[in-house]
């Protein structure tokens, strides 16, 4: 079982900022920006590389929620970044799909 599944199941604590039937959002334990939230599906999808066409509604739902969470956090006007690290080269460390919502400072590009 992944760490994020344990957060969904309330086996380990997290600072939860949003929840509905399909997804959960909580603050990253090691924030890389003033606002750093992780948005995860409750369904266990390992990574973007494991997404299937049947996941379309869920992933669309999550993108809308990500925009709303960013707005609630006051990030919309100045901007923010959504990141989905995928597998080894993408730098993924937890194998439960998650969208990083990063904001509150100017972010550099390109990534390292
Ligand atoms: P990845 O590197 O897989 O894209 O992102 C995993 C993220 O999970 C990292 O930003 C890391 O700080 C965060 N993380 C790891 N363990 C925990 C934890 O126990 N609680 C929370 N809230 N975030 C965690």
Short description:
Helices cover 24% and strands 22% of the residues.
Describe the structure.
- With 112 residues, the chain is an alpha+beta fold.
- The chain has one domain: HIT-like (HIT family, subunit A, 2-Layer Sandwich), CATH 3.30.428.
- The protein is built from three helices and five strands.
- It has a five-stranded antiparallel sheet with strand order 1-2-3-5-4, with helices on one face.
- The protein is globular and about 35 Å long.
- The model has no long low-confidence stretch (mean pLDDT 98).
- The structure holds guanosine-5'-monophosphate (5GP).
- Guanosine-5'-monophosphate is lined by residues 3, 14, 26, 28-30, 38, 85, 91-94.
Read across the widest sheet, the strand sequence of neighbours is 1-2-3-5-4
Q: Give the strand tally.
A: 5
| Helix and strand element order | HEEEHEHE
The computed structural class is alpha+beta
SS field, number of helical segments:
3
Calculate the mean pLDDT score and round it. 98
Bound molecules: guanosine-5'-monophosphate
End-to-end separation in angstroms reads 30 Å
Question: What is CATH's topology name?
Answer: HIT family, subunit A
**What name goes with the CATH superfamily?**
HIT-like
Into which percentage range does the β-strand content fall?
A: 15-25%
Q: Any guess at the CATH architecture?
A: 2-Layer Sandwich
Q: Which blocks of ≥5 consecutive residues have pLDDT under 50?
A: none
């Amino acid at each position: 079982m992944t760490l994020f599944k344990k957060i969904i199941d309330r086996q380990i604590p997290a600072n939860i900022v949003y929840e509905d039937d399909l997804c959960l959002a909580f603050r990253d334990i090691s924030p890389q920006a003033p606002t750093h939230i992780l948005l995860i599906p409750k369904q266990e999808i390992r990574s973007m590389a494991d997404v299937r066409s049947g996941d379309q509604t869920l992933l669309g739902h999550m993108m809308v929620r990500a925009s709303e969470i960013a707005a609630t956090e006051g990030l919309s006007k100045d901007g923010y970044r959504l990141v989905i690290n995928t597998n080894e080269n993408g730098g993924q460390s937890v194998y439960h799909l998650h969208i990083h919502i990063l904001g509150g400072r100017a972010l550099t590009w390109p990534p390292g």
